[in-house]
Design a protein that fits this description.
Two copies of one chain form a homodimer.
Chain A: E1 6-11, H1 19-33, E2 37-42, H2 65-74, H3 80-91, E3 94-100, H4 108-117, E4 145-151, H5 168-171, H6 173-180, E5 186-187, E6 191-193, H7 201-216
Parallel strand pairs in A: 1-2, 1-3, 3-4, 4-5, 4-6
């Protein structure tokens, strides 16, 4: 990452004394010391309202809710809290999404950050010169990087390639592919901190070091490479063409890199 | 389903004039006419607070947030709105979760229903006589059925087995496996209503009929069969044993039924 990189760090954790908050403060300081501009948004501390509702589209017209959201975006009448977050996203090179895994997804307060901020006309529903909607590998947020930092009570194996909870990359498909890739962002491999309830003073230092090591390569590490909609691999109805990985199913068929676990590639099909 | 079946229908949609609300009213009436007891919870209409916070564990003790949530559950000091929803879940045979697919997951208001209602000591963290935690095929909600009803702007193919958005069963893994199966509930195949923005007066009748047809088999249709933690297929660290589907990855390896698309089984490995 260049020294002028602009980073938005969004954290959702209800406990300001949590391990997550310690790592968050450490990480933000580390990035600033390295010369990056960092905006940080603590959703619990700021009392973020996560409920997307008709209140977000007051005065906007359109037949469907999505149409009204689009109209509010393009006529610049979104609520001030949403507009401010959109500016922060627009100004960033990298967005860090930091949360505890609750029911194998984001806490509601964070899910609702995406619901309200990633509006039609801003993050998606944006068209190219030919009038085609830019999505899946292109979109309103094209080129920005997205790094999930995830804390989990599960042990690491349970969220590994054959773990009972599902591989963390697959579990986070809605964020990595359905949100980041869909809007043109480059999803980075999740930074997973497992067994959080077993972390003691003796292991905290290792976790902090692993995190800063990860942050140091934020701008240069290769993102997960999903197939793009316009790359020729999909049919007009958005099905993977029969000749591409014929007969196979599962999320892996949508990746151009065969695995995000380099050491395990030989185990993967 | 027996005529005495008790059903909880939870809907999250910000637009009371939406297709979803029409289908919801139609479905609830249909179930009642068939003799079922139905409790319905409209999260937007009731102004549900989806943010799990320290306010939910006031007066409870414990080192971690999860410990305090457990203590509040067992000492019966959860907020009244949460306690009421827990009673509705406890009294139900089937829980219907009805929502529009936003960023390939639930709207925040619904995600926060799970975050706040499915507490430690109620839905999970419950132990058997031997002191083992009941989870993945067993848990605090064992035996209840869970049916997701999902509306999506995507066309059907995009959410099919080889669709760019991912198979809807895989996309909803956090709900079907990570939440339902994890707490002992029996997940039913999602009832997907795709291309919702293209539905007109001419096609509404077909959608309503497909829904009531589905509701008529709610109590008898076979649920998705995921492997249970105690069934012998997993190691002590919750990894699938090497001899079970050796070398394979992806969510499919955790299913006992090879597919939820009977007509496509021959295509699946």
């Amino acid at each position: 990452m260049t020294s002028s990189g602009s980073i938005l760090w969004v954290i959702a954790n209800p406990d300001p004394h949590s391990l997550s908050h310690s790592l968050y403060r450490h990480g933000v300081e580390h990035l600033r010391a390295a010369g990056h501009r960092v905006h940080d948004v603590d959703l619990y501390a700021t009392g973020w309202n996560p409920v997307l509702s008709e209140a977000d589209t007051l005065g906007a017209s359109g037949a469907t809710f999505s149409d009204r959201q689009r109209h509010a975006t393009t006529q610049d009448t979104l609520p001030a809290d949403v507009a401010r977050q959109q500016r922060l996203v627009a100004e960033s090179d990298t967005v860090i999404i930091h949360f505890p895994l609750w029911w194998y997804g984001m806490p509601a307060i964070l899910k609702g950050w995406f619901d309200r901020v990633f509006t039609n006309g801003f993050a998606f529903g944006v068209r190219d010169r030919d009038g085609k909607v830019r999505k899946y590998g292109d979109g309103g947020l094209a080129g920005r990087r997205l790094l999930p930092i995830v804390t989990a009570g599960d042990r690491a194996d349970a969220l590994g390639p054959r773990g009972i909870s599902g591989d963390i990359d697959d579990v986070l498909w809605p964020l990595l592919h359905g949100t980041a890739h869909y809007t043109g962002m480059l999803p980075l491999r999740p930074h997973l901190i497992s067994s959080v309830n077993q972390v003691g003073a003796d292991t905290y230092g290792d976790l902090a070091e692993a995190l800063t090591g990860r942050l140091d390569t934020l701008g240069t590490e290769p993102p997960i490479r999903y197939r793009s909609l316009r790359g020729g691999d999909y049919t007009a109805t958005h099905d993977l063409r029969p000749q591409v990985r014929p007969g196979e199913h599962g999320f892996a068929i949508h990746r151009l890199d065969s695995s995000n676990h380099p050491g395990l590639q030989h185990l993967r099909r």
